[in-house]
Amino acid sequence: MNPLRDPVRGDGYEEYIGRIGELVNGEVKRFERADIIVDLGKVEAILPRSQQSPAERYSKGQRVRAVINKVSKGSKPQVELSRTSPDLLRRLFEIEVPEIYDGRIVIKSVVREPGERAKIALVSNERDLDPIDACVKGSRVQVIILELHGEKIDVIEWSDDPSVFAANALTPAKVNQIRVIDIENRQMEVIVNEDQLSLAIGRRGQNIRLATKLSGWNIDVRSEEEVKREVNDQGDDSSGSPP
């Protein structure tokens, strides 16, 4: 019997269904069109093209780490893996940062555009423990970036203040001011210097897009200069109006 056609037999389904989101290690066994078949030891799993990072390429016999994304049961039960899931980044940080593994630092949110950029928001449970320093010390983050084949990672400090968190989420840009425009619809306006505007928006809008997902707020970024021009224009209009 082809193990891909029936990779989870007997109690295998029960074993793997409770492990969704878990990090597993395997070996590339073969390729079926654009999908990769990974030998996990007990079973063969599938790493579909849709769950592969565009920055990564694999060869037969290569070791691969991925998270269990889905386990399906039926006439063709199957374990599906993912290299694009935010859970992969969570698990890697838990491995590389002991303070996260033991619960002193908590991962609050993770967003990714696989193979390009990711943002992870952290909060410390201890007053004297800086979550950013803990993650960037030594080569911890660099090890994760290497695992993800060069994917850039912004490590963000989480805050329960939406304005503070949004400013942090726009890293590496420096924010001057934040105005909450509509609380109900979670909209805010962020003001930055002209030289920070491109950083805040990012290439093809990537930075602001990830910051929006991470914070859960719709963020409109504007430059300080643009706002000043707008205020001046409004002043000119009002001064020229008839009494």
Structure characterization notes:
This protein is an alpha+beta fold. The protein folds into 3 domains: 12-82, Beta Barrel (OB fold (Dihydrolipoamide Acetyltransferase, E2P)); 85-158, K homology (KH) domain (GMP Synthetase, Chain A, domain 3, 2-Layer Sandwich), CATH 3.30.300.20; 160-234, 2-Layer Sandwich (GMP Synthetase, Chain A, domain 3). 30% of the residues lie in helices and 31% in strands. The protein has 9 helices and 11 strands. It has helices at 12-17, 86-96, 98-101, 131-136, 140-147, 162-169, 197-201, 206-215, 224-239, and strands at residues 23-32, 35-39, 44-47, 63-72, 78-82, 105-113, 117-124, 152-157, 177-182, 187-192, 218-223. Strands 3-2-1-4-5 form a 5-stranded antiparallel beta sheet. A hairpin with a 4-residue loop joins strand 9 and strand 10 (187-192). Helix 2 packs antiparallel against helix 5 and helix 6 runs antiparallel to helix 8 (206-215). The longest helix is centred in the C-terminal third of the chain and has 16 residues, at 224-239. It is elongated, with a radius of gyration of 23 Å. The relative contact order is 0.10. Residues 1-11 have low confidence and may be disordered.
Largest beta sheet: what is the strand line-up?
A: 3-2-1-4-5
Structural class designation: alpha+beta
Overall pLDDT metric? 90
Q: How large, in whole angstroms, is the Cα Rg?
A: 23 Å
Record field, number of beta strands: 11
Count of discrete alpha- or pi-helical segments spanning 4 or more residues: 9
Query: How many individual domains?
Result: 3
The CATH superfamily of the largest domain is K homology (KH) domain
Helix-strand topology string: HEEEEEHHEEHHEHEEHHEH
Helix content: 25-40%
CATH class designation of the largest domain: Alpha Beta
- And the CATH topology of the largest domain? GMP Synthetase, Chain A, domain 3
- What form results from the Cα inertia axes? elongated
Largest sheet properties: 5 strands, antiparallel
Approximate strand percentage: 25-35%
Unreliable spans are 1-11
